[in-house]
Amino acid sequence: MFNKQFMVIITVAFMVMGGFTVLSDINANGILNHNNSSFTPSPGNSRTLQSSSVSSTDIQYPVTFNESGLPHINSWYIVLFYSNGTQIYKSQTVYSAGENISFQLPNGSYSYAAHISESPYYYEGNFSIIGSNVDILVNLSKSPDGKSMYETKFSVKGIANSTNWGLYLKGYWQFNQDSSEVNMLLVNGTYSYVASNTENAYKQDGNFTINGMNVSITLNFSNYSENSLPVTFTESGLTQGTVWWINDSQAYPVTGKYFYQTTGSNISFDLPNGTYTFLAVPSPSYIGFSFTFTVDGSENISIPFSSGSANAYQVSFVETGLPTGTTWYANITGYPSSGPMTSSSYAIVLPNGTYSYSVSPVSGYTVKQNGTFSVGGTEVNISVDYVKNTTLNLNFTPAGSAVYVNANSVLLSSSGSASLSLVPGNYYVNASLSGYRSFSDFYTLVSGKTYFVNVTLASLSIYGYLNGTVMPGNATVSAGGLVIPVHSGKFNESIAPGTYYVSFTANGYNSVVKEINITAGKTSTLDVSMTPVTDSVTLSGYITPDNASLVVNGLVAYVNSTGYYGISVPAGTYTISVYESGYFPYSENVTLTSSTMMNFTLVKEPKATSTTSANDTTATGYNVTVSNLTTGNGLVSVSFNSSANGTLIVQIPYTDMKNATISEILNSTVYINGVPYRNYSISISSNYTIILKVYGLKSGDPTLYWKYSPSAIISKPAPAPTVAPPLPLAGYEIMGAITAVSIVAVASIAVFGRRKR
């Protein structure tokens, strides 16, 4: 038997064959342990992944958030999310500055956001409870990017106490209140604002700059009101009873507060002399529009809604995925913002045309934030799908390992850990360190779940380096079934000495295989540029057992830990080999004209009757006694004595068969006492061991000849066998030995490459 090495590699793209979910048992602490110090499957080194869960019946533990650095002008609060099955719970608590915020929570994984009241900045993170109390320090002295923040104070004059008024800070947020001042924290920069009274036409706007010090701004509404004159807006074209409103175009984003609304024909309020731009907005089915006018004394202004109604259509933004009551907003370029909303939809009426829009980010969720849409004679519905992020907690030993998630470098702590908030989907986790066997695995992460990955890299006492480049940069590289991590088209990995066949695969490219020798203490280099290919079909399905390998015409396919495999190849005829130690090998010739799913189940080997070896070649009999094994010159011969229905398996490394190509080997012939024999199959394992399985052997004491090179001569003449035409193989390169076999592997399929006997 031979040792097995199995790894996994990942790409960013979500595959055509679907995702792969890796689930299994966790230990008593809810932690998954990955250990690749040995690649022989056993309970101690199986690679498993389990999502955490929360049960309402679990024991609860104190979780305390300790705030530091926040000036006493501000309060702060925590928004907390955690999962219990499919239900998402949300807790929000507001405290004065300097206090702690505490929760009682059961075991589980959580995400949180610490918000500064009346500030656009917030801080987010993740934590887990595993049978003990948790303390979290929340430093609110600076913005999330580390910039210092300064106090900005707005003071109001000229309106009665407790009068509701509002402030809109452009590009940030808006709010309403009835106190005489507003305090907020902002970083250096220039800001625009609009302040309005909600019951009268008082309004003040302007700009201010923060440059390393606090800022105070006085809003004097009395100056505004004392010089105001009545202005009347009269609509035409609306059906009687239709709601419509007038709003200052600058203050409009503060939805529901800074407008004048009616179902009648007129709206009146006071404005001082000057030039104004206002919005006239009807209910859906009529177009809203802006207009500019000058007040020089009392004014009467007509609003002809009917003039724009013919080409106006409702545009609706429909939100999904957020917990009930969560605030979000939608903006259309050149049009008023929806303002903060807690409802699941927002509608506006727009004329025909093409528009750009954006929606707000929400802590702990992912959403398509920008897009375009066109209005062309019909209503438009835009889906705003928020997806709750997933958390991936990593812990690697040694702590100095270089770790990548979907080719993005991960900064580990001094203890070798990291916690990542990720969009749900497929992820490759790679780790490497000089003198250690590299690690690569594939995970499908589900929305709202938390995953733990613990890995100990296996040290190599003797090793060399496999170094090189590949184009395209997202290609998958494997050496003898061992996956080699690639970062931006470059690789440099520690690898045990020996001869390897290194395969390079990428979706949309012809595969390339190179033979290379790794010497202890030295670097061996391969630079490969792959050739694009346009036509390909996908072969996918499941293998049992799930740690078996699948090889297509000599190219190793990618198999994930659930036994799901996938590979893309040009349309044509291929030999599929499925193999795992302890099972009979299986091979099948198939013609692929379109994407196909095929499942394979291997049959366990019974106890062997006898085994014999010569050089690197092994012959094993089942109900068969084998002897006199010889190899060389394109021929293997072995004497055997079989009981009824015996099976004989011969294994030989491809390195010992260099006088034959992969195509010739797959189409080689078997003779028994010089007569062609038909009951056999030829398979290739992931480390390029060629396996002949001869079955249905009858009683007798003959000699079997395996002629894998056309030039070989058997000891007894035989009639010319009828041999199937060679399989069409193209574009497959092994330094001067393997002829063309063109295969394009799906780069984003989860894979365990394994080293076989």
Low-confidence sequence ranges: 1-57, 83-92, 250-258, 717-757
Please identify the oligomeric state.
single chain
In total, the number of strands is 63
What's the total helix number? 2
Overall mean pLDDT score? 75
Shape: elongated
Question: Biggest sheet, in brief?
Answer: 8 strands, antiparallel
Radius of gyration from the CA trace? Answer: 36 Å
Query: How far apart lie the N and C ends?
Result: 6 Å
Helicity, as a percent range: under 10%
Task: Tell me what portion of residues adopts beta-strand conformation.
Answer: over 45%
Which structural class should the secondary elements be placed in? mainly beta
Could you please describe the fold and organization of this structure?
This protein has 757 residues and is mainly β. Helices cover 1% and strands 52% of the residues. Strands 55, 56, 57, 58, 59, 60, 61 and 62 form an eight-stranded antiparallel β-sheet that branches. Strands 46, 49, 50, 53 and 54 form a five-stranded mixed β-sheet that branches. It has a four-stranded mixed β-sheet with strand order 2-38-32-35, with no helix packed on it. Strand 4 and strand 5 form a beta hairpin. The chain is elongated.
